[in-house]
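Input.
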Amino acid sequence: MTTQRRLPPEVKEKLLEALRVGVAKGYGYVKIWRMLKENGVEVSISTVRNYYYKNFPEKLKRRGRCLPRELRIKLYQKVLELRRQGLGYKRIKKKIEELCNVSLSISTISRWCRKICSPHNGCRVPSVKFLEPSPELSQVIGTVAGDGFATKKNGNEYVIGARVKDGDLIEEFSRCLGKVLGRDPPRPRQEKDGAFVVEVESKALYELLRKPIDINRIAPFVEHCEECMRRFARSFFDSEGSVDKDGKIRCYNSDLQLLQYVRKILNILGIRTTRPKICTKKGTAFFDRRRGKTYTAKKDVYRICVRMSDVLRFYQRIGFTIQRKQKRLEEYLRKRGLL
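Output.
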């Protein structure tokens, strides 16, 4: 290890002498740092630590196997709870051993209680078990299931995001991501073709939303309450839906099971749809006007339509986040005298 700045010769000499004396007495680097401070020698604790392990490498402890992060976070929360009840470090240690059958060191408990460190290490939601059902999470699920992506990069980078052409949709998606992950909303970027992209790293969301979407994984979050179902349906139709001047609301996707699940959610909300039908067969070539390129469909693409008798109910209970789609739907309903 190297120091970040060169010490004055007289300070370095006092530091080395203190290290020799302290190690002979069995002191750790923290106690040696305090001893220097009491003697008026101003040296940072990191400098003392670096010199300590550089000159006495045999003192460098080999880290054993860590407990799983999920367990450490649960223990961390329990330690803070016991501390709020007024328990001292030794009593907390004993209580954790009784409740969780895990032995924590006094130093670990001390650092956690003083908020010097935590097992989160910047990862606020380490796994799906720590995700809480919420309308914002349902909105994230619907967007990723539609225009979003969940990819694993370089072996240990788990990236969640979406690429859309509407700024209002990406702003809402960004806000919901921030809420779900307990962080500031990620900043969207605009690409050369005008599309907006937002992405974040989250192993928990990757486990939940990797494609093909596992309906059994997302169902407890989507079906948590009526508002969660509404937000899921709205964000999915924002991504995969369309509305024309005649008021026809359609939704497209190549995942038949996912479309069937969307139909189920809409039915619970009192909105009927047609059965899925193939609108683009596998192998069909089509032209993307936005990108100016011709593509070939790798899978069959299915379509469902909201029944015309339920278009008003769709507007009242779900609607669109994307303003251009919402306005087009409102214009149709005004023409029919329904608004």
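The first strand starts at residue 148 and ends at 153.
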